[in-house]
Amino acid sequence: MDSPNIKFISECFIQPHSASEESKKPFYLAPFDLAMLSAHYIQKGLLFTKPPEVNNNPNFLQTLLAKLKHSLSLALVHFYPLAGRLVTKKEQDPHLYLVYVDCSNSPGAKFIHASLDMSISDILSPTDIPLVVQSFFDHDRAVNHDGHTTSLLTVQVTELVDGVFIGLSMNHALGDGTSYWHFFNTWSEIFRAEENNVTLTPDPYMNRVLRIDRLRAHNLKEPKIFISLYVRACSRPPVSERWFPEGLGPVFSLPFTNPDKFIERFEAPELRERIFHFSSESIAKLKSKANSECETSKISSFQALSALLWRSFTRARGFAPNQETSCRLAANNRARINPPLSPNYFGNSIHPVKSQPVKAGELLENGLGWAAWKLHETVVNHNDKWIRQSIDAWLKSPAVYQLSRTFDPHSIMMGSGPRFDMYGNEFGMGKAVALRSGYANKFIGKVTSYSGRDAGSIDLEVCLPPAAMRP
After folding, report:
1. Mean pLDDT calculated for residue range 47-51
2. What's the DSSP call for residue 213?
3. Fewer Cβ within 10 Å of end Cβ, the chain: N or C?
4. What is the phi-psi region of residue 321: left when phi exceeds 0, alpha when psi lies from -120 to 50, beta otherwise?
């Protein structure tokens, strides 16, 4: 049976509640950011059950939308680049191709209200993720370079018969998964603080926000008034100052003359998408098994789980024994760079680290621990020296990542991460019942990992060709 079509009811743009002096300046992108210009937006969202009192409150949704918009405007004060637009400045002599964010000449972040005549069960009960879920997100098939003419952040609130889905689409050139969930967490934190009239206590980085020039710009004399009227404090303000290798930045020119030289419109092949749930107990058993087979205690839970998926993927695809295969893991560079970046660094600081290629037959003949140890070695070797060598190589020959060239169909890619606080995001409807993603950045062998709803559990969103996914 075909799914009903989503109905788009309204859309508007949300500006930061107040504009700082910093937001009036060009926001330059670092090499890690510029490399993402041809990738898709990040599309993730949470599905909530409508609270029981909805039946007695006909204005429930309109009240929710108003609160979401207001708290979003407050969150954007901290994450002001998300309300901007990309701009390219080009010059011929000397050559300049500069892509940056203009935060002051933009309508803001987009906010969409939509509805769908389907239930939570219609979304969660099918074996495969329904295609209609892709319509819960803006920027379908858009690449980050499209941020020149479209929003860098869109919130789409889709009302179901008995639920509400809140989906965020964020331009990947502005931030990675860590930054994405940092924003989501902050927005939720501010929403709850506004609803409960709670004063949030900022960490030391808040001093960066409460600068005297901002107070003067808004004719405010008392910092306490500044916090309550100008910006709602958050517990983890983002560090927006971009990281550049020593001696470089903030202006970085790309060696191109027009976007046709580096933009690719990637279309994924036909895929089946399915969620696989792993309880904390099953993960603990996998970790114990992998470490026992290697007579070590160094293999992590996620390395053991990734090894299981790598071997299962290889078996399901039916590769010839001599076919080379590998496993990639999305590694966060923040703590690996020396000196380390703040965990609140807002930007891209990730790299897909790749295991040494092995023969498919060898991978399947050896046990779980053998594969997990290969991944452990890959992660251990991803250190400050490796990261800086990788950056140096990119600087000598700048390139924009393209999905068709970056990933091969004989390998598996473990994206996102179960350490992100996903189910801690609440918007007056209790804890979400599920997490789903859109069309973006999917291909054969892509596995997106999420923290499960139950403590210690992990959900894996697996993309495979139809023939490789059992009914």
Report:
1. 97
2. H
3. N
4. alpha
